[in-house]
Structure formats: C-alpha cells, structure tokens
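User: Working on a comparison across species. This one is Telomere length regulation protein TEL2 homolog from Anser brachyrhynchus. Can you predict its structure so I can line it up against the others?
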Amino acid sequence: SEARGAAMATAVESALREALAGPAPGAAALGALRDGLAAAGGPAALGRRQRERFGALLRSLAAAAAEGPEEPAGPWRSCFVEGPPGLALSALLGALGDAGRRLQPIVEVLERFVREGRLAALMWEVCQQQARGGPAELQDALLAGVVALPDRVSNSLRGRNPAVFFPQNYFPLLGAAIVEVLLTLSAIAPVLSILSVYLPLVSSSTSEEILSVLVPRLADLTKSDCIWQRICWRLVECVPERWMEAVVLGFVQRAPGADVLSRLLGNLVVKNKQAQFVVTQKFLLLQYGYTTAVLQNLLGYLSLDSLRRALLIKVLQELLETWSSSSAVKHSPAEQQEYISKAILICLSHLKEPEIESCRQELLTSMMEGVKCHLDSSLPQIRRLGMIVAESISSKINTDGPVLKFQYEEDDEARELKSLLVQAPSICAVPSLPDDNDDDLTPYDMSEDKELKKTKAPVYIRDCIEVLTGSEDTDKWEATVKALESLVRKNPAATREVSVELAKILLHLEEKTCIEGFAELRQRAQVAVLTVDPIPVAQYLTSQFYSLNYSLRQRMDILDVLVLAARELSFPKVHGKIKHVEKPCVQLLPGSDSSNDWRKIVDERIKSKTRRFAKGPSQVQVASGPNEFNSVAGHFFFPLLQNFDRPLSTFDLLGEDHFVLGRLVHTLAVLMYLAVNTVAVTAMGKALMEFVWALRFHTDSYVRQGLLSCISSVLLSVPAEHLLNNMTEELLETQSWLGDVVEKDPDGDCRRLALQNLLLMENLKKKLNKTVPS
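Assistant: Here's the predicted structure for Telomere length regulation protein TEL2 homolog from Anser brachyrhynchus:
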C-alpha cells in the first residue's frame, strides 16, 4: 500500500508539473491532475510541496479566467471544487479583489463552491491544520473570508450577486456546515479545543442566520446525549473574551427555554468571568432592550444548577438595590424600570423557601425603600410598578401573615407582570358542588315589578346649596349631586348670584353615600359653575390653589376643573349648546397621565396646521362661533404663575410635591394652547417661557415633559411675528437647551418632545422667511 501511495503521489506531482509548465494549462493536463488527485484519495493526501504547487495552479487559473480574453481550456472549474478548499477559496478571493474585466466566471465558481458543500470541507481542513500547529494567521484569514464572502461578491458585482449569496440564504448554509463539521469531530474525539475556531463565525454580525440553524440542531443533539452536552460546553468555554457577549446573547435569545440553555452553556457563568459579567451585569443592569422571554431564559438558566443559584441571589440583590434607589427611579427611563421590575419578579419566582428565609430582612428593607421611591414618582406607570413589585415581595416573605395590597388598574400589563411571579400555572381541581340542583326551582315572576319612585331633586340653585351643606337626607343629597350640573346650565342667572359660594361647596364636597361616579359628577358640576361665571370663579379657584389647609387631591382638582372649563369655553356653540364632537382630550381624573393627553392636543394642532388635498364628502364643516375663552384667559392663567416658588407649611411645589408641580406645568401648557388667537396670548407666552426657563433643569421627568409641552404651546399659539419681535432672545436660548435635551435627557418622551419642538422652530423659521420680501 505504501508503494501504491507513493506511485499515486508521483502521478499527482507529475500532473502538477505538466499543468504549470506552459503559460496556460491544457485540458489534458487538468484532466490528468483530476484523475491523479482522485486516485490519491483527495486533497488531504497532498504534501506541503504539492499544496504549494496546487495553490500556484489555482491562482493562475483564477487570474486567467478573470483577466484573459476567454476562459481557460478544460475542466478548470472542477479544480477549485475538488482541490484543497482553503487554497481554492484564497485564489478565488484574490481574483475577486482584482479590478478584472471578467468577474462572472469567478462568481460562478464561488457559487458552485458554496452549493456543493465545500464550506464544511474548508472548516474541517482548518481544524486539521490547527491540530497540526498550522499558522493561525492563515486560518483567521480564511474564516474571515468565509464570513465576508456575501459582502465581497456584492461589492464586486455592485449588488447584482446571485441569490445564494443573499445573507438570508448564505448564512443558514454556513450554519449547516458548522453542524456537519461538529458531527465529524464528535465521531473522532468528544472534546477538542479546536472547536473554538467556529465561534467567531457565530458571533459575527450575521449570527442571527447562523444561529437559526445551529442552536436548534445543538438543542436536539444535547437532549439525550451527554457527550454532545460536553462538546457544547467546551465550544462556548473556548470563545475569546471579545466575542463572549455576542455568543452568549445569541444562545440566550434563540434557546427555546431555560433547560435548553442550561444544556448548551453548562456552568459557563461560573467558569468564565467575562460570561459572568455579561449575564449578571450587562444584560440585566446596563441594558434593557431584551424581551421578557430572554429574561426568563437568562434567570431560569441561573436557577437550574446549585453552583449557579448563588449568582441568582446576587443578581436579585443588585436588582433590588437599583429598584430601591431614589436616584435610579428619578433618572432612569420608564422602560428600564419596567425591565428591572420584570427581572425582580422572575428572580422571586425561582427562589426557594430556605433562600427566602436567609435574605428575608434584606428583602423587607429593599421593599420598604423601593415602594416609597416609586410612590413619590410623578409618573403613574412608575407608581404602579412599585406597587406590583412590593406586593410580590410581600407575598414571598409573608406567606402566613398579612401582605401588602394596593389599589391600581388591573389591565393586561399588570396581569402580565403578576404572571411572572409564577413559573407555571398550576392546575387545580375544581371542587364539586353539592347535589342540591336548583334547575328544578320555578323562577319568580318579576315582569310586573316597577322601579321605586326616586327622591325628587331640587329645582332651584339655592335649594341645592342647602341640601349639600346641611341636609341629612342621603337620598335627597344623592339626587342633588346628580342633577346639579344640568340645573346650573339651565339657570345661569341664578348661578351667577351664588357662583363663588357654590364653587367653594363643591371644592370641599365629600362623598356621603356610595354614589356611582361621584368624582365625575362633582367635577362636571364644578366645570358648569366655572363656565357660567368664569371670572369670579376662576379668581377664587386660582387663589385657593396656593392657600393653606388644602390636600394635594383638592389642588389637583382645581387644575382639572380649570383645564376642562377652558376647553369648553374655547369651543364654539351652536344654538346655545356646546358643539362637543369628541370627548375632552384632557381627562385629568385620578390616575390619568396628562402627558399622554398633551400628545393628543399637539397632534390635533399640528394636524390642523397641515395642508392637505380635500377628501370629498368625508370632510365635515366645523361649527364656528366666538371663542368665549378670549376675554377670560388671563384670569385662568396668570394667577397660577405667581406663587409656585413660595413654599407653604403644607405645600412645597419645588420640593416633595413635585407631582403637583408636574400637573401644574401640564395645565399651563393646555391653557396656553387654548389661548390661541386671544388678546393675551403674547403676554401669556412670554410669561410661560420665563417660567419654563426657571425650571428647565428639574430632576423629575414628568415635570420636564410638561415644560417641553409648554414650549410647544407657545410655538403653536403665539403668532409668528410676535414671537420674532418679543421673544427672539428667549427662542435662541430655548433652541440651544432643546438640543441638549435631545442628546442627553434620559427620558425618551422628553427627547421626543424636544425634537418635536425643534421641528416646530424650523417650520416657524421657514414661514418667516417666506413672509419677508426679497
């Protein structure tokens, strides 16, 4: 056999010499080379000298195909597919990089190289070379060429590359090639350090397509084979540190569950410090863009092994430290706080009773500090996050005693958060009912029943005042509350005689009975009184906003009533009735978020200023009429600006009562918007710009959102020429500040509003340029 092998090697050597002898190899020489190579057992049988000559031959063939007037004779393409894959790819890439006139033959050979599975042969050859101590630089260059092949082809053909080189087609083939080589390696040696060669491919920018093939295949192979589990573990353990984050993230995102991720990664986070930092710090505390499924995979993976559970406890402690930090609550985006809250709930779901017992006091301390920070926030979603997490912690540490319970809206988001506290829904048997079947009972005939006669409501305004202030008849009191708004609107003259007294009664009115919608009924009555007699009632309400002995709820009620009444007064009336075409955009009831309402208002105004082609009969003519807010806007607006920086013994807007400050700022923004085309609009705009400038660096994001909304109101409501003449310096300073907000503010809504204001300023500048004569 040795003699036969020597004879075949001699035949290959002779064929190579003949092929390289002339300026261009002939068809006969190439045919002889192919036959000799096949008889010798393929490219692996070539020695060092023969590989050098084969490489020279491939380079000459590639150059001739790319630069010559016609293609080389004979089966020259087969030499690239049947020869050493590393030499073939190097020669083809070299020809592809030259500015030749005929790149199409080179691309066709590359396409055949990929389609006929030579990528797997190339990677297997690299593994063998590394095992023999081959040069690492050459191996890295070949792997880089494999990853960059679609880009190289696209650049050379200027985007007209074949379909096989589209990323969505090429990289799944590359992933399949990696699996094929791993299967070959597992058959030879269960654990090989050379497996790390493939991970730079996985961690490249194209990892999504590669891992879409690799992860499912590895998950299937490791399901019942411990050898394959050890191969995967060694595979990820040998990854260079610079690639570790991308590799771990790729596996975490694509593993179908925490158990699969545990099979694929093993105890990587325990053995590798870089992997530990990525999993326990970067993915959880420094980044927040991953899905809930990724969080469940990540934290579930930490919980599935006794060595990793210590990291789970450590992660929970660090998450709670961030969650209970007042600075983090104030300055972190709402999205990041929701992300951290979800991570805490998932960690709690994995804790066992001994672990809870060991850190019970720490959990209690974090819960008390964190819930206070969240309840102090001006943003409703942040407050609710704090309530849900605090309830969850309380239920874990007080399994036998009383637990915290808050009142908040139970919507889909809240239910999703609570579901994270339970790993899997338990299936409980429903207890059977007694045999006492009530289907046989005869239903009682109620067809003739009549509703009992209700208590008659008062018909005079003064009678209403007497009932609300002194009557002990709860039925009469309830009827009065329900009828008051209608009565006020029907009797404006009588209402004006007692308007301030009635406004005072309604501001202090408390619920005596469990009347449905009491808060809304009281608010609608207040709005009715204010719209009937705007000036004295507005003066009373604005004076009371900064007075002593009022609760925060009452102060916010004043702001709500002012906004809703101003909106109603600014609407046109048709035949004595208000033309309500939609619900008010500003719904400042308990738990509402006026920043969202502000977005609706700005969108409405921008839409009204946008010119569009007519859409035929779909357009409805809007009712027109006098703006009743015109003559009273100043009475609503200016008193609210006077005393905001003067703290009272029970009220400090610039201190701990920043939530009310946020509501005040949003109220001023809406009042400014509604004052468009009024006499006082310019003075209001100038005063509001000074107010904004004084508070522009406020630490609360809700307040900053309101300040940016005020800027939008000024730009939309004050005439452009008045802005230019009266507020030029303020606008330039504001523009510079808005640029800083867009670049540096941690709150996404603030950045969006600042950018919107810059666009409004740019539109204002263009409008002024058009009006100036050339």
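For your comparison, note: The two ends are 97 Å apart (CA to CA).

User: Helpful, thanks.
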